[in-house]
Each structure stands twice: as structure tokens, then as C-alpha cells.
Amino acid sequence: MKILFLTDNFPPEVNAPATRTYEHCREWVRLGAEVTVITCTPNFPQGKVYKGYSNKLYQKEMVDGIRVIRVWSYITANEGFIKRTLDYISFSVTSFIAGLFQQADIIIATSPQFFTALSGRTLSFWKRKPWIMEVRDLWPESIKTVGAMKDNSIIRYFEWEEKRCYRSAKKIVVVTDSFKKKLEERNISSQKIEVIKNGVDLTQFTPMPKDEKLLEELNLKGKKIIGYIGTHGMAHKLDFILQCAARMEERNNYHFLFIGDGAEKKKLLKLKKQLRCKNVTMLDSVAKQDVKRYLSLLDVALINLRKSELFTTVIPSKIFENAAMEIPILLGVDGEARRIIESYQAGLYFEPESEKDFNDKLYRLLNEPTLYEQCKAGCHRLAHDFDRKRLAKQMFEIIASCLCPPSHS
Questions:
Q1: For residues 188 and 184, what is the distance between their CA atoms, to the nearest angstrom?
Q2: Residue 106 CB-half CA count within 13 A
């Protein structure tokens, strides 16, 4: 089986789409598939080409048995709607051209970058091969939710194209049950929608003692560390967390550690300075292989999104890596993510953007030892139920089913 996979993000980038795609494709190679990934030069989220790469028209490499083709795209930082849209459109065009020359039995294109799906759909038409649309985000609905763009004729055009993609795809793979329900409400056949949630590579993330050397480097010895590692975007409402932290100065052993980059990073750094937050450390993104060293420092893993009906349908992928490290989770996301955390007793939920509830739940996690140990045990159970290897195999079976002729028994 020859799989052609289109994705805007791929290692050495360290965001959730890059990790999911790489771990799935690596497993499919082990299961006997020939996998070609078309992606762009690594640059996310700062819009700077990674060391050792250049933004060439076309370049190839092998990564753990995966044939990776990197094409030129207009590169910009993960900020500013128009520039990012130009980035997305350029990759859509160059990935389509490169895809025309690749052998494939089936094409997969992954969002949230919607223009990648357009490339996959168009390649499917020209190559006369089935395609699968992987939906990681309900785009363009999400850009309206975070306020990046108001409802207008451009958005309505994107929504029309979105529906065309859903209808032409052989299968739609979504990452939450809520996404499936939303698509069914749009009259997309439930038979073509499959749910493959995010997960974690249990060979990479396991419980480990705090990295004492790193604690010393960051001057965090003796602190109770609440950490957020991930994109600093409009959806994540990290300004709310900074404001809460600024009013906690009296609890001088609580310390917030933010690691990552994104569209809101500059504003957050400015806000931190304005609030004079002495109990907050903000670092740039770290390499994938170093993430677990920083995770090891955390007493509580913070996962937060702005208060919105749309975000009740998402399951942040951060949940799974933190759970695998057995770090109790403080979750500011209602809906499906909350149900997972509460069903496994892997942490506590606080009402998004409620400072009182945030403070109360954080205090409980850090001051009730029985609850804390219960959450660690819940994290262990959660991580093992969302083993990425098993989830990749499930998706591989879905891919294979798209190529099997229907039985006429």
C-alpha cells in the first residue's frame, strides 16, 4: 500500500499535528506500507527556518522509513491572519504540484490548515485515487471563535469549500466524538466519519524524577511548579493565567512555567512585565527530545482554552503526554476533554476564565496529598488507554478499508 500524506507540520517541528502525523506514519511503515509525506521546510511557530534546512523548491529525506518531501512555501511567523493565509495557500499549491509526481494508492490530507485539504482533494481528482480528510480542527469555524476574522463572504466561501471536501472524501477521520456529531449535524453521512483520538507514544513519555540540574538552571528549587508547554495562541487564553498568577504573589512557593511560542507570545511577555509577575518563567519552545525533561519539573500540568462553545468539542493533545508522565492535570476546557479527565480521575476541571475556580482547584491539587496520588494513578490509566501505537493501527485499518472492494455476499 502506497500512502501519500500531506501535512503543513512535521518533525523536527514539535507541535501536536507534527507529532501525530510522524508517529502514525512511522507505525504504518512498520505495518508494511510505503509512506510519502509532503510537507514544508520546518519553521513553526516562529516562522524561521530550522538550522540545517533551507526553504528550497523541493528536497527529500528519509525519516524512520518515511519518505519526506519538503516543498517551498511562503514562510511567516504564526501570527497575523493574512500572512498565515498566504503561507497556507502557498503550501497548498506546491504540495499539489509535488504530489502529482508521487505514486500513491490513497491520499491523506490533514487540517487544521484547511488549504492542505484542498490540495488533497484536488490531487485525488487528478490522480483518480481516493482521499481521506483528517479533521483536527473545525476550520474555518475556529477562526471566527478566536476572533481572528468575523463572518463575511470570505468565511462563507471557505465554509462552502469545507463542505465540498467533506462530501468528496472517501473517509473523514476526526479527533473527537464531538467533531463527528457536528459533521453529522451538517448532513455528512456518519458511515464515512471515523474517530481516531490523539494519544501518546508510551516509549517516549514515562514517569521520571524531577531533573535537578534543570531546576537549578531555572532557579526553581523548592517551588511548586504549574506548567504550560505548547502553543501560545489566541485560543489558549494565557493572559487569564498570567493575571491569576500575578495575584498569587503571596503564595511564594507557587511558580508558573510557560514554554512555547505563538501568535500571542509577544503580548504575553509584555503583559508579564506590566503585571510584574515574579512567579512566572516564560521560555521559548524546546526540542522534542527535551520536552520530557521540562515536563518532569511540573507538579501540575495546566491545560487551558478560552471560554467558548466550540472548544467543548476539542481534546487538547497535551493531556496525553502529561498523563503519560503521571502529572496531575488542571483543565480549563469544558466538554469532551473534561469528561475524559473526570472519568479517569486524572486531574481537576476548573470553569474556563473563572479566577476563583482556578485558584480553588489549583489549591486542592497542591494541598490534598490523597487527591494528588489519585490523579497520578488516573493519569497512568488514561495514558495506557490512549497508546498512540494502538490508535495508529486503528487508522491503518481504516485506510486499508478504503482500498478494499466492497463485498457482494
A1: 5
A2: 21
